[in-house]
Amino acid sequence: MLEIIFQLIAAFVGTVSFSILFSTPNKYLPQCGLVGALGWGVHLLTLDVTGSSVAAIFAASAILTICSRYLARIYKVTTTLFLISGIFTLVPGAGIYYTAYYTITGPGESALYYGMSSLKTAIAIGLGIGVAYSLPPKLFGWKRRS
């Protein structure tokens, strides 16, 4: 349990740091951190329940997108402000690094393994965002202008 709390704190801090790096306005940093921590928490929970990393990434990215859309409505900003920061915890950076590393240094099987894993993760992130964006804007309080 303590390990999970530390992971959520690390996700919060990492997301806030990433948000600062990309010049997110300071007043939205706590919300961005919460979105990142929520995404990582959903990932951990789904991974524990299903045992599938791809399903966990899909669920986490869908929840992140829904949360980002909701916060965008509340604070009257773009969804991407929260989404780009929040998705940081799910991006397969290490997998992409190891794909490039093993492609250059030799073992083709390792490069293929990490490449396919990274590709599956990227597709799951894209599908999760797509599914959440397909929900009607009315669910988030957006009203149609007349």
Overview of the molecule:
This protein has helices at residues 2-21, 29-50, 53-75, 79-86, 93-105, 108-133. The mean pLDDT is 92. The protein contains six helices and no strands. Helix 3 runs parallel beside helix 6 (108-133) and helix 5 (93-105) packs antiparallel against helix 6. By secondary structure, it is mostly helical.
Largest sheet: none
Poorly predicted sequence stretches spanning 5 or more consecutive residues: none
What's the pLDDT, averaged over the residues?
A: 92
User: How would you describe the shape?
Assistant: globular
> Could you tell me how far the N terminus lies from the C terminus, measured between alpha carbons in angstroms?
51 Å
Judged by helices, strands and strand pairing, the structural class is mainly alpha
- The share of residues in helices is over 70%
Work out the oligomeric state of the chains in this entry: single chain
Q: What's the alpha carbon Rg, rounded to whole Å?
A: 17 Å
Entry keywords:
globular, about 150 residues, single chain, 6 helices, mainly alpha
In brief:
77% of the residues lie in helices and 0% in strands. The protein contains 6 helices and no strands.
Topology:
Layout: H1 2-21, H2 29-50, H3 53-75, H4 79-86, H5 93-105, H6 108-133
